[in-house]
Amino acid sequence: MKLTWKRIQAHTRHVWKIARSGESVTGGHNVERAIVSIEHDGLIGLGEAAPTPYYGQTLDTVERTLGAVEQARGTAGDLLGDDPRDIDGIIDRLLERFDDQRAAVAAIDAALHDWWGRKEGQPVWRLLELDAATTPATSMTLSIDDLALMPQKVEEAKGFHILKMKIGTDKDVETLTRLRELAPTQTIRVDANCGWPAAEAEARCRAVEPFKLELIEQPFKEGELDAVRTLRQVANVPLVADEDSIRPRDVEKLAGVYDGINIKLSKCGGIREALRMVQLARANDLKIMLGCMVETSLGISAAAQLASLVDYVDLDGHLLLVDDPFCGLVLADGVVRPGDEAGLGVRPTGNLTV
Question: Domains of the chain by range and CATH?
Answer without folding.
Answer: 2-121 (3.30.390.10), 127-348 (3.20.20.120)
